[in-house]
Design goal:
By secondary structure, the protein is of the alpha/beta class. The chain folds into two domains: 66 residues, Ribosomal Protein L25, Chain P, CATH 2.40.240; 161 residues, Alpha/beta knot (3-Layer(aba) Sandwich). It contains six helices and 13 strands. Strands 7, 8, 9, 10, 11, 12 and 13 form a seven-stranded parallel beta sheet that branches. A six-stranded mixed beta sheet has the order 1-4-5-6-3-2. Strand 2 and strand 3 form a beta hairpin. The longest helix is centred in the middle third of the chain and has 18 residues. The two termini are 26 Å apart. The mean pLDDT is 93.
């Protein structure tokens, strides 16, 4: 069932009012009719089954039928993804959201070829991408998009485990390393840019994280992010 994230102020006396791009999606993309059931999820964490009752020129109104049980499908993973080419970075945002990450930090590195001057504008686009991905994958939360950070400004101390994907470190078994991380712990993953992390960055990260290899082939940055999150999810769900 299609779901939409809403703010608490959109709920009034068991009625939910939706406008903007979600209104357009409901009316013109999904072509829902009066009487259609729709799931809505508040940013405060509540999930409701609703029934569409009216359209007007720019809004749609839904009536709450019942509150649904919330299934926790968010992984306690923060992805610090190096800034890479726009379409590839946005692919990571989408797929990381579908896979369940909690937060995404755009990461500036020495080899990042992308520079963002107006991050406020870019952040709005990023937030739209992760919201739509969370809705499509029936998540109960939307990943947080944090401010751009450089490597030395990352809050390493806030996490139980910190892993850095590093293609040249072949001595650590990825499977055995991931098996040591309980699913109730917080994890920070660092993924480098197209050219990889700089040697000085790796030297710093060796003191702050565990360097892990993702196998005997060199993965693109966007592939590495998706692969590593998927591997952790597989282990935690089993």
């Amino acid at each position: 069932m299609q779901r939409y994230f809403i703010k608490d102020e959109q709920i009034n006396d068991l009625l939910v009012t939706i406008s903007g791009s979600d209104f357009h999606h409901i009316k013109n993309v999904m072509r829902f009719k009066v009487g259609t059931n729709v799931t809505v999820v508040s940013y405060s964490g509540k999930t409701f089954l609703t029934e569409l009752i009216t359209f007007d020129k720019s809004t749609v109104t839904l009536k709450i039928v019942e509150e649904l049980a919330v299934i926790n499908n968010t992984l306690n993973i923060t992805l610090a993804q190096a800034l890479i080419k726009r379409e590839k970075f946005e692919l990571v945002l989408q797929k990381a959201s579908e896979l369940g990450v909690k937060e995404i930090i755009p990461l500036e590195t020495k080899h990042s070829i992308i520079k963002i001057d107006n991050f406020d504008k870019k952040k709005l686009r990023y937030e739209t991408i992760v919201k739509e991905a969370a809705e499509q994958s029936e998540r109960n939360t939307v990943p947080k998009i944090s401010e751009i950070s450089d490597i030395k400004s990352l809050p390493f101390e806030d996490y139980d485990f910190v892993l850095t994907a590093y293609a040249r470190n072949e001595q650590v078994s990825l499977l055995e390393e991931l098996k040591q991380i309980p699913s109730n712990k917080s994890v920070l993953l660092l993924i480098g840019p197209e050219g990889g992390f700089d040697p000085l960055e790796i030297e710093f990260l060796e003191s702050k994280s565990k360097l892990i290899s993702l196998g005997n082939t060199i993965l693109r940055s966007e592939t590495a992010a998706i692969y590593l999150i998927s591997a952790i999810r597989l282990i935690w769900e089993n």
